[in-house]
């Protein structure tokens, strides 16, 4: 049974969005239909490609600092149009560091004024900006900081902040932000990096497997609500984000070390502190991720979750910036007409994009949701509404 954060079938079965899902299933069952839903339920919103860190492992290295930030007017009008068409949640995230965008605070304010759920994924390097917007957040919102280390030494080596900032300083600011407004959940994100991986410039990456337990202790002491562990992703020759698990003895050794560290971290669980492993890390560590690489041909998640960036709209975060999964320009949702047109283009794209082939090397956390929608399409059944969880992040 997946954790609720990763149980995308349970999220899609929530009564408040069941009609939206039924519209998608009907559109898929009838090749001539458009996409009446119009907009995804959840978006990743990349405000900028600019970043104030120089991380050795940045998956978005090629698009980093590659152009202007998202135009504020386009972002705001897109949010309004998409909300009218069914948008429920916004995750301000990558491609760059969201807090670097000059209108970051205004965008957070607009998201909350529209009644949307808001999440922020940040490197934490501008603690004062995060503290200011954190006062706007409400229950169900969250902030996740990409910290990836249990010591400042490893933090500096992995992230290379342009303006000096220490790991302890970031953690201390979280404690203060939670005092200002306890409504939002704060997460300490740790991307697990192991020996043998290389960065975008071919230099070997820092390893941090040995700091998993120390990071969990630091997160707990600093007042974070949880720490989450994910595997380091690497882009394959075709541009897709994949897990490069070492073969043979090295893979077994890594599995043993990872299990040991995760058990030590897990011992710190408490009613106020969670220790979370991502679905793909858990599957890779158990050597059981092959079913998550067996995608159905149609990736219906394109209808429910998309990525808006200053360089265009993409269907999946695994193909951020990749023309093969591009759904339109940056202003593809800036207005009602563009929103309807993008919905129709999304449908055509889902039919043309063969996920079974394109994503065959990707350990995809949406695999079960895609299979579930596929089964509804085949049987013609309507969505059987499940529990109202109140979590619309996809
Ligand atoms: S199958 Fe998974 S990895 Fe592939 S496009 Fe869909 S969500 Fe992304």
Brief synopsis:
With 394 residues, this protein is of the alpha/beta class.
Which labels suit this protein?
about 400 residues; alpha/beta; TIM Barrel; ten-stranded mixed sheet; globular; binds iron/sulfur cluster
The global form is globular
Q: What is the CATH superfamily classification?
A: Aldolase class I
State the distance separating the first and last CA atoms.
17 Å
* H-E string: HHEHEHEHEHHEHEEEHEHHEEEHHH
Bound molecules: iron/sulfur cluster
Secondary structure: number of strands: 12
At the fold tier of CATH, the topology name is TIM Barrel
Q: Bin the helical content.
A: 25-40%
Nearest-integer average pLDDT: 90
What is the count of distinct domains? 1
> Which parts are unreliable, with pLDDT below 50 for 5 consecutive residues or more?
none
Main sheet attributes: strand count, strand direction, barrel closure = 10 strands, mixed
Spatial strand sequence of the major β-sheet? 9-6-5-4-3-2-1-10-11-12
- How many alpha or pi helices? 14
What is the CATH architecture descriptor? Answer: Alpha-Beta Barrel
Compute the gyration radius: what is it?
20 Å
Structural class: alpha/beta
Strand content: 5-15%
CATH class: Alpha Beta
């Amino acid at each position: 049974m997946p954790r609720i954060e990763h149980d995308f079938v349970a999220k899609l079965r929530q009564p408040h969005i069941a009609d939206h899902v039924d519209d998608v299933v009907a559109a898929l069952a009838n090749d001539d239909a458009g996409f009446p839903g119009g907009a995804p339920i959840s978006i990743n919103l990349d405000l900028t490609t600019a970043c104030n860190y120089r991380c050795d492992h940045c998956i978005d290295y090629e698009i980093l600092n590659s152009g202007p930030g998202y135009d504020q007017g386009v972002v705001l009008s897109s949010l309004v149009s998409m909300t009218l068409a069914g948008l429920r949640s916004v995750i301000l995230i990558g491609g760059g560091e969201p807090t670097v965008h000059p209108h970051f605070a205004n965008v957070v304010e607009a998201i909350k004024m529209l009644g949307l759920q808001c999440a922020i994924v940040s490197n934490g390097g501008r603690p004062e900006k995060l503290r200011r917007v954190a006062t706007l957040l409400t229950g169900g919102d969250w902030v996740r900081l990409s910290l990836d280390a249990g010591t400042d030494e490893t933090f500096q080596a992995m992230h290379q902040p342009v303006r000096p900032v220490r790991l302890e300083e970031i953690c201390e600011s979280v404690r203060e932000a939670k005092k200002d407004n306890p409504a939002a959940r704060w997460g300490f994100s740790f991307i697990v990096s192991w020996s043998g991986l290389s960065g975008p410039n071919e230099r070997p990456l820092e390893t941090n497997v040995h700091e998993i337990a120390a990071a969990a202790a630091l997160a707990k002491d600093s007042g974070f609500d949880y720490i989450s562990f994910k595997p380091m992703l690497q882009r394959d020759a075709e541009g897709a984000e994949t897990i490069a698990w070492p073969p043979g003895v090295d893979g077994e050794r890594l599995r043993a070390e990872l299990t040991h560290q995760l058990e030590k971290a897990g011992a710190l669980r408490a009613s106020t502190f969670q220790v979370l492993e991502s679905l793909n890390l858990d599957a890779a560590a158990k050597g059981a991720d092959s079913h998550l690489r067996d995608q159905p041909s149609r990736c219906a998640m394109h209808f429910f979750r998309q990525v808006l960036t200053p360089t265009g709209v993409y269907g999946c975060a695994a193909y951020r910036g990749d023309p093969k999964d591009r759904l339109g320009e940056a202003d593809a949702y800036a207005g009602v007409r563009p929103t309807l047109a993008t919905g129709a283009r999304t449908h055509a794209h889902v039919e043309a994009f063969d996920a079974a082939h394109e994503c065959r090397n990707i350990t995809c956390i949406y695999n079960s949701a895609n299979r579930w929608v596929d089964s509804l399409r085949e049987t013609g059944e309507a969505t059987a509404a499940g529990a109202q969880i109140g979590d619309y992040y996809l």
